[in-house]
Every structure is written in structure tokens, then in C-alpha cells.
Task: structure prediction
Amino acid sequence: MYDTSMAVIDMVDKISAAMDSNEFSIGLFIDLSKAFDTLNHKILLQKLNHYGIRGVTLKWFESYLTNRY
Result:
């Protein structure tokens, strides 16, 4: 399992290899720390169910989102 510093080292290695090969590289960084703060949890659970997330997995999401604001 990698930690953050290993992920950064891996990313730098890949960017360096791309530069050495005259290739392009691109990075996309997304902060999901507040991703669930702006949506209705009930609607999210309904959509997960609609897209096939059911059973234990859906119950895990439901448990995680219960009483969170």
C-alpha cells in the first residue's frame, strides 16, 4: 500500500520519463474532502440503487451517510 509521499514520487518518476521521451503528461487533482456536503444524501442513495449498487454495499453507504451534515 502506498502513502502520499510514495504516490508523489511515483508521479514525478512518470512525468520525468515522459519528458525524457518527448511525451506530454497531464495531472488532474481533485479535492473530495467536502464532496458529500453539497448533495442530498437520500437522493444519492436512490441514485446508487438505480445504478446497481445494492445489498451490503448500499447499506454501507447508507450507514456512512446517516446523521452526517
Notes: Residues 4-20 form the longest helix (17 residues). The mean pLDDT is 86. The CA atoms of residues 21 and 44 lie 43 Å apart. The chain is about 55% helix and 0% strand.
